[in-house]
Structures are given as C-alpha cells and as structure tokens.
Amino acid sequence: MRIESRRWTPGGGWDRVPGELPGAQLVLVFASTSACARAELFETMSAAWPLAEIVGCSTAGEIFDTQVSDDTLSVAAIEFRDTVVACSRVAIDAPAESFAAGTRLAQSLPREGLAHVLVFSEGLHVNGSELVKGLIESLPDGVTVTGGLSGDGHRFERTWVIWHGRPEEGTVVACGLYGSAIRVGYASLGGWDPFGPERLITRSAGNVLYELDGRSALELYKQYLGEHAADLPASGLLFPLSLRTAPDATPVVRTILGVNEEEQSMTFAGDMPANAYARLMKANFDRLIDGAAGAARVSQHALGGGDPELALLISCVGRKMVLQQRVEEEVEGVRDVVGPRTVLTGFYSYGEISPFTPSARCELHNQTMTITTLSER
Amino acid sequence: MNALHALLIRQLRKFFPSGAPEGAAEFIEAVNSAYHQFDDDRRMLERSLDLSSQELIQANGELRAIFEALPDVFLRVDRDGHIVQMKAGAGVDIDTCLPPEDEFQRALRTARERQSLTAIEYETGVNGATRSCEARIVPLPQHDEIVVIIRDITDRKRAEEGLKHTVSMLESTFESTAEGILVIDAAGRISSWNQRFAQLWQLPQEVLDARDRERVISHAAEQLVDPEQFVARIRELYGGDPNVESLDTIRFKDGRVVERYTIPQMLDGVPVGRVSSFRDLTARHRAEERLRHDAIHDALTGLPNRTLFMDRLGQALLRSKRHLDHRFAVLFVDVDRFKVVNDSLGHLVGDDLLVAFAARIRQCVRPADTVARLGGDEFTILLETIERPEDANVAAERIQNLMSVPFGLGENEIFATVSIGIAVSAPHYQTAEEMLRDADIAMYRAKSNGRAGHEVFQPGMHSTAVALLQLENDLRRAVDRNEIVLHYQPIVHLADSEIVGFEALARWNHPQRGLIYPAEFIGLAEETGLIVPIGRWVLFEACARMAQWQRTFDRPELAMSVNLSGRQLAHRGFVADVARVLGETGLPPHTLCLEITETVLMENSQSAAESIVQLRDLGVKVHIDDFGTGYSSLSYLHRFAIDTLKIDRSFISHVTTGHENMEIIRTITALAGNLKVPVIAEGVETEVQRQQLLALGCQWAQGYLFSMPADEAAVQTMIGSGRFPGGAMRATRTELVREAAS
Asked: Residue B494: pLDDT above 80?
C-alpha cells in the first residue's frame, strides 16, 4: 500500500501537485463546505487520480497529519497492492428512509471477498442509528463498517458527500475493501462524563426529543448553556446526552443535530426512545485527549502488531468545540501511539460509525474519536 | 476578536511596562482567546454545578417528603449487614417488625448478589399476636448499601384470604348451579359467565373468549323461534332503566324452553351491571304439555278424546250460530263386530286394530277436521265446513272404501267394516251432546240395516230410537208381567214326517202392540242384557212343557230345542242354570237341545267351548243353528262335539231353483255324514223341497210344509193326534220303517 497525502488551503493552494500516485484506486477527500464549492479542486483531483474512486465528505474540520484546520481540503490517495475497491451510493431524502437506505446500500455492494466497508453519509437529514442497522443487517457476517456523518462546520445547514469526485447532497456512499490482504483495525472512545440527575425520556419520536421528566428538553438545554443558548444547535454539543435504554445496557452518547423552537424539540443523531434514561454529559479535557490515544491503541492492537500504514481519524465536532485551540492535542496523542510513519487523515464529523471495540456491535456514536487503521500484509 | 482579558492586561502591564514586544500581537491574541475560553468553560461548569445541585436538592427534597410520608419502616443496611439508619413507620414498631435474623441476612445477600429487588414475607409476634410483614430489599446502585422497606401486611393478607374464600365459594356456586348465568357490566361488556350458560346457548369458546356481546347475541338469536323479540328485549333491558328486574320465557327452534330471570348487579346500592340466569324448563314444560295433551287425548290412539271432541264440536256449533251458512257434520263411526277380534285374537291385537284404524280414518279427512276416539270401538269425526250435506256421505264412503283393504296386524290379516252415523249441523241443535246423540242414533240405524253402511240422521230416527227406548222399558217389565210366551215348531223325520221334537220360539205378547216376533226384540234384549232373565225363563218354560208332554203323551223320545244367545252362553252360571232347570222340570237331559248360531259360537269361542263341554257332561245336546250363513267351518263341529247341524232356511228356499245351493247342501250333508252328525233342514215349505232334501240324505226338517210355530194347545193336539194343523196325516215312523224293511 502506498499513500499520497495532499492538502489544499485557501491561502496557499495545494501543498504539492497531486498525482504522484496516478494508479491510486481510492482517494479519500475531506473538505470544508467552502472548499466543496470550488469545482476546480475536484477537477484537479479527478485528473490527478484518473483510475480512482474519489469519495469523502464535507466536514466540521479537516485533519491532515497532526494539524486540524477549517476551510481546507485534506486528501489521501491510496494505491493498494492486493486490495480491490468497490464503491456504491444511495440517495436519502428524509430520516425515515435511513434503514431502507442502509439496506439498499449494503445490498448494492458485491459480497464475495468483502472485508470492510467505509461509509460517508449525509450529516443532517439522516437517522444514523437506523442507517447503521440497515447496513449491518444486510452485510455478510463478520464484515464491519466504519465511517461518519458529513459536517458543516458549526453551522449545521448543508452537508455534502463526495461521489465520483463530485460533492452531492442527500447522499450516502459506501466503499467496500475486498481481499485477504487488507487488515483493518478500529476503535471508538469518548472522554465525556455524565453529571447531574438521570432523566426519563417522557416524549420523543424517532430521533426527535421533546420532553425529559415531563419538561421541555430544549428549555433544559438553554438553562445549562446560558449565553451559549444563542449558538444552538452547535452549542448543544457541549452537553451531549448519555442514553441508557435498559437498566444494564451500555450507555451510548447522542449529540444534537438541530433544534426546532416552534415544536420545542431537539433532533439528535440517533434514536431517542421514550422510557430510556438520559443524563447530561460534560467534557473532561484530559480524558478527551487520553480517549483519542486510547482509541488509537485499541485500533492498532487489532492489527496484530506493526504500525498501520494509514489511520483514518473521524472525530466529533463536539470535541473540537470543547478543545478549541487544544484540539490538535488529541491528534498528536494518536500520532504518539501509531508512530511517525503512519499517514494520518480524517475529519471532524456530525456522527461516528464504528463498533466501540473490535468485538462489539457497530453503532453510531457521538462525541467520540473513531479511528480506522489500514495496512496490507 | 475578543477584548483583552483583564488578567492579560495586568500581566502585560506588569511584565512589559513599556509595552508589548514587536511582533507579539498574534501570540497575545492566541493567549487572550485561551484566557477567554477558560473563563467561558469555568463559568459554564460553575453554572452546571449550580443548576444540577439545585436540581438534586429539589429531587432530594421530593424524595425525602415521600420518604417521610410513607407509612413503612425504612432501614439502611451497610455491607456488613448492620443497620446504619432507620425510620419508624406509622403504627409499626421497628423492634418487633424486623424479619428473623437468619432469613434477613440471607435475603440481604441475595439482593446484593443479584443487584435487584428482593422481597420476603414473614410472620412476627407482637404482644402475643402474630403479624404478617413484608420486607422489600433494594441494593443501591453504585453503593454497598442496601435499603430495606418493611410494611405490616396483616390486614391486607387477612382481607386477601377473606376475599379468596369468598371468590372461591362464589365460583363454586356459580359453576355448580344448574342455571346458565351471564354477567354484563354497566358498559355492556361481558364480564362473566358459567359453563352451563355456554352449554345452554351452545356458544363456541372463541365467541365467549372474544367477550363480544354483539356476537353472543347474534349467535343466540339464530337459535330462537322469535329472534327479533329476543333482540328487542335485550335492547330494552340494557338500554333502559338499569334497576329493572324481569322474568320471561325464551323458545328455541329445537323445542327447548328457557326461562330468563334478570336482575341488576348492585354495588353500594348502585347498579354496576346485570346478572341474567337462564333455566332450562324444557322437561317441565314438556311434562305440562303432556299432561294437557293426555287430558284431552286418547292414550291408545293419540286421537282427541271425548272432552276435546265435545269442545271442538261446541265451538263449531257456536260458529254456525254466528254464521248461518256455516255447515259442518258429525260422523259417528263404530267398528262392526270389534268384539269378535278382541275375543278371538286377544286385546292386544284389538288395540293394534284400533290404532291402525285410527291412522286410516285420519287419512281420509282434512287436517282441520277432528277425528276422536270416544272409547271402545267408537270413533267420531267432526267435519268442519262442508258445502253440502252430501259431503258427509262422501266422507263416510271414503272411510268405508278404505276398509276394503285388510289390516295386517302381525300374523293376522283382519277385515273390518264400520257402521257410520252422520248428523249434519242444523239450526235446531243447541248443544254438542244433541248432535252427537243423533249421529249415534244414525249409526245404530246403519248397524241394524246390516252393518258396513252409513246413515244420515233423520228426525224420524229419533222417534224410532225413542220408541226403541220405550220398547226396552216395556221389555224389562215383560218378563215380570209374563208377557213373554212360547210357540213351538215341530221338528220332523223327513222321510215319514213323524214329530221328533219341537223348537221353542219366544213371542212377546205386548199389551198395546200385540204379538212381537223375536227379530224385533231379541237384539234389544241382548244389548240390554235382558236376554239373560228372558233366556232363563224360556229355558225353564220349554223344559217344563216338554217334560209334561212326554209324560202326558208317553212320548219320552220327544226333544225340545231352545235357542241360546251369545250373551247367555257367556253368562257365568249358565250351565248351573241348565242343570237346575232340568232338575226342577224333570226333563231327561238328552231330550234338551240347545241351539247356538255359528256366529255366537265363533264370537264366544273360548267361553262357548267350556260351556259346551259342561253341557254335554250334563247329557244335553248341542245344535248348530243357521249353519251356512256365517263361518261354515266344519272344523268346529268336531272341536265342539256338536250333535246336529241345522241348515239355514236361505239354502232350503232356493234348493229347487239354484244348483249351487243344492251343491252346498249336498256338501254339508256329506261332511256331516262323515262326522256322523245328523242334519236338520230349516224352512222346508214344499213337497219338492222335501223330496230333494231326502234325496240329498237329509234326515230331519222343520218348516211350514209341516207346521208353523204353534201355541201350547195346538202342540198338544198335534202330539195327541199325530196330525199337523191343516196338514195331512203323515205316515207314522213305524210304518215307514216297516216299508223300508220290506
């Protein structure tokens, strides 16, 4: 596996001319929404890697090596030695179609030899939990999925998914990696602590939450956010929810995708079932950064020793908002674990898709750092 | 871009009093931004801490209030099982309500291991009284401590026990009753039912399980004679006053009759539903119907009996009074010679005949007509609404035609004929009895006209009947007043006309009507039973006369023939009477001949056989009278050891003209000859007849050729003179014997 890593910035343009590996089969592109609007960038990439499936998405921050920046474009062009790539796409118009979209997407990929699937999804009008359920149910046993929901900075307005080298709205892309040479590791870790009382979800519908303990959930958030309430829904990421669906179930983290003042409702990136218990969470700086490094360790361990060749980092926009100037510390933490040779790429997302650990079921996460490590034997 | 942070301003002033170094502006901005973010973060954390503290204080307060308000005992137990906090409950003493120590520690362990609620119930003694308590043990999540809540459940348990007992008793009662019970709640839903209810209404389990009242109603209604009424009644019961009690009867298509009793189900004086009980009255109802039916029907044939017939007849009569053109008729039907069947084949066959007969006549009337059995072999028919009086005749003929087919009863094939009397409605009839009486009279007329016929009642018949009644009264007195007299007809030796005996014939010397012949009064005497005293008198008189004549004329061989009726023969003590008469009159038994007709013999075969044997033991002779008119069976001649046959006059009178009659006589005499039974020919009127009878081998005869029946004086002359009155002196027997010998 060889990797050509490139970066475009509004001030400096391309750091180096793209196309060092013209035979690359897969190009992962993570771009700010402003960069997505620049058609010439995509034309350049299509010309540089004419044989490649160029896929990716818009972001809430692009990761290039250990740098995290906004308004840029981060690219990793991969030339596999023995691995075959097949990509597929489905359109999605409403969150209610999420399960069906996941099913269709999984069914559209050839099954034979499928080792792993990378997924990049529309980030706002989707029920990520249902999408993942649909994918998992229709994929062959043992094939896992990692990926994320596309982002739009702190704006939460429009997200894009890159398919055939062009950004599109209302799209989900799956990228299948085939063959026995490819080795994939993955992990997802948080670093958030629940606090305050446990609250019962008393009114909800799908991923829309109305009431906690009979009170408006939006009102509660506004109280806790104080002056930051004006920045909803983005500021809602400062207080994700820890959700427990059954007394002994592992809690999952849910972040806000949007608010509706008229309905007094909040839309989350995954299901908010009634009668589940929810607790507010707050960031723990040290654990956020440790969490990223921990995920890297688990992911690397899953490869069975040796440094990975590529680490795909998908971290939550909520972490970036909390860490602010210190956001790069979590990427540096990953670098410390994987060693200097591994190429780091990735983005800040509106939702991460991965099992918590290699043995766990794949789920949609929020507020986590999700790492997928790739190498070929 | 944020204003410079206050701390940063102070620091810059302190460390760079002469101003910040050149080119540090970007760095200062980054530090400023970080200071502001840290402030933001701190404020947010402080606010969050404050808010969640308040929320927790509030939640804690709520819980504490609930905790204080709870009447239960509350304990907090540490990891070692020691109580670290306790709260007394209302009216529960902590010291006495704790579970037994072993049991308590065991439950604490279980709860801790399972990390879930564990409850135990136990009994504890308080001041000698036993109380029931319940301890609920809840491990606190993320604590080593356990919360225990203890509640005194004595009253609840007692109430539960009581309730259980009551429910069990009610359930047993509910299921053991023979009545089907259904309970509907105030909202019209089925709340309960018993198995008997399900059986009674044949409700499938799934219909009941659905508890859908409308389905139950429609399933039930389908089975009823009047489903609309049933449904309407239910709407009334459940839509109207909930306090109503009601009792009614429901009729099923399959004939069942069910009584429904429904009352409101009351709770604290308020109706909360309705209980309906259904009792199957079919058996009782059928029994009542049976009784009602039996009271007005004949048990043997199932036909209406006299009571019902008279009621229907009375109603028909009333109708005809209201509608003058309404005509109807009464047929009085009597089976001819039914007694013969009964006596010869037994009562069971007789009953079978009546049943078959009833079924047959039922066929030939319309459904609206009434066929009734009055009793015995008497049947009546009420023909409702006839166009013309002749219609009644048509019906009668139809019945009589039906009789042409024999009744097959087991091994027996029986021919029966009926005599029918008809009375047609008329304005003068006031009562049903009058009409029935007239039909009866007409029937008697039909019978006396030779049976197997029908007669319509005519007013004249009534007077005949009245006359007959008068005759009957007269006849009763006749014996006492010595109005019965005897005439005697000689029986002669055919070859020489020598008198060998006489047949005694009764005459009634009526004070107003003069001499009445037996044909007119013997039937009546038989019907009324007067035949017995008359017969007894005739026997005595005849015997006494003959004994006297034998002595007077020294003719000890002269014999006296006396006719016997069936009734006499059947009469207990008849043989004794004969013996007594013989004794009293001194007549030698062998000179008394008792004449019995074939019909009498057959109709009384059993009693006749016994009497004949006894009579013959006395030495009395038995003759068969009117031979050839009835059964003409020679077998009984042998069976009954008959002494003599008398050939009926009907054969004799035509002997000269009918070849057939001659053959019959020849056959009879030949057979009699074989059996060594002599033959007497009756009704010999001409010399030609005498010659032919002689030629046919007939020994004796009686008839006008020799003498009419004569009174006592004439007889004495006859015997004394050896001459018949008005006839030539015949050759004496001895002369003839001599002739034959020569």
From this structure: yes
Query: In the numeric block, which tokens belong to residue B586?
Result: 């001194």
Cross-chain Cβ contact B59/A195 below 8 Å: no
Taking each helix axis as running N to C, give the angle between helix B459-480 and helix B518-528, from 0 to 180 degrees, rounded to the nearest 10.
80
For B54, other C-beta atoms within 10 Å of its C-beta total: 10
B30 touches chain A (CB under 8 A): yes
Judge: A280–B56 Cβ closer than 8 Å, yes or no: no
- pLDDT for B728 equals 43
Q: What is the pLDDT of residue B462?
A: 76
User: How sure is the predictor about B737, in pLDDT bands with cuts at 50, 70 and 90?
Assistant: very low
Residue type, B421: G
Q: CB distance from A91 to chain B under 8 Å?
A: no
Measure the CA–CA gap between B680 and B647, rounded to whole angstroms.
Answer: 6
When pLDDT is averaged across residues B707-734 and rounded to a whole number, the result is 73
CA distance A117 to A176: 5
Interchain contact, B47 vs A197, CB within 8 Å: no
Tokens 């309407």, residue?
B232
Chain B residues in contact with A195 (beta carbon < 8 A): 48, 52
For residue B209, give how far its alpha carbon lies from the nearest alpha carbon of chain A (Å). 33
Residues of A in contact with B34 (CB under 8 A): 324-325
Smallest Cβ distance to B55: which of A197, A282, A324?
A197
Within 8 A by CB and 6+ apart from B117, the residues are: B111, B136, B137, B138
**What pLDDT is stored for residue B605 in this prediction?**
67
pLDDT recorded at residue A177: 96
B60 touching A (Cβ < 8 Å): no
Q: Is B46 on the interface with A (CB under 8 A)?
A: no
ipTM computed for the complex: 0.71
Q: What is the pTM of this model?
A: 0.47
Q: Does A327 touch chain B (CB under 8 A)?
A: no
Give SS3 for B345: helix
Q: pLDDT tens-digit profile of B294-353?
A: 889 998 999 999 999 999 999 999 998 888 888 999 999 998 878 777 777 788 888 999
Q: Is a pLDDT exceeding 50 seen at residue B732?
A: no
Q: How many CB atoms lie within 10 A of CB B234?
A: 19
> A219 phi and psi, to 5 degrees?
-60, -40
Measured at the CA of B418, the angle between CA B414 and CA B421, to 5 degrees, comes to 170
Q: Is the dihedral of CA B52, B54, B55, B61 positive or negative?
A: positive
